[in-house]
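Example 3.2
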Amino acid sequence: MSNFQASFQLADNIDQDKVFLINLSDIDKRLDTDYYRPELLTIEKRVSAKATKKLQDFANTMASGATPSVSESSYYADKETGIPFLRVQNLTINGTLNLENVKFISHHVHENQIKRSQVSDIDLLIKITGVGRMAVASVPPKGFIGNTNQHMVVLRTNDREKSRYLANYLNLDIVEKLASRRATGGTRPALDYSALRSIPVIENINFEVHEHDYLCIVGENGVGKSTLMKTLLGLVDKKEGNVEFGKNINRKEVGYLPQQTALQKDFPATVMEVVLSGN
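Structure, written as tokens:
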């Protein structure tokens, strides 16, 4: 009897990112179908091909905290006497902390029960559980001392600039998809430490703009769009790396219209004022 080998092919009118086939040999421990979605597999392969390291290579230590019992009033304190206790809602996708509505814990709890999750201004904070966007990352402001609960991890790089780069990297939409792909838990997704450590990291991200290119820089408030333009034009100092112009381009000849300048505090103008200013 000859061996029978089945062959399957999806119709062209089927969305193959929602309905897809996968070989048994390609199944890697996970049985949830979204893990093998073609779009995510493609992103994983492309990023991994460019990545030089994984997140684990930047972690000297990793720790997460706990939520002190609210029934023990002595565990908590006011703003004047307590230590900031961070929660997931304090993380933002622009890489900084939103310190509104922060709770405060006592110094005793900070130094004893959850000493392992103490946070300093050089640490990287990453969301590991909860609905919505996964692996939201932020770096505390300079001089910050605090603590955190069990829904985020404190990744200690021992280097503030390195933490800031990783926060911006993890907050990229394409990298968030890699993090979400690694999450488990169904209605309440979670990233375990091994999954978080496995995220590929591309270092020293660069880009080029060529003649006749039309480039749009988009993003939410505070992500660095204006800072990027000012850095390209030498209006602010770069932290590292190089900005190179083609030999036929003079930086001083590049036009730049800022949102506001020190001499134009009343700008933007009204529609009528704009019309009246024209010829």
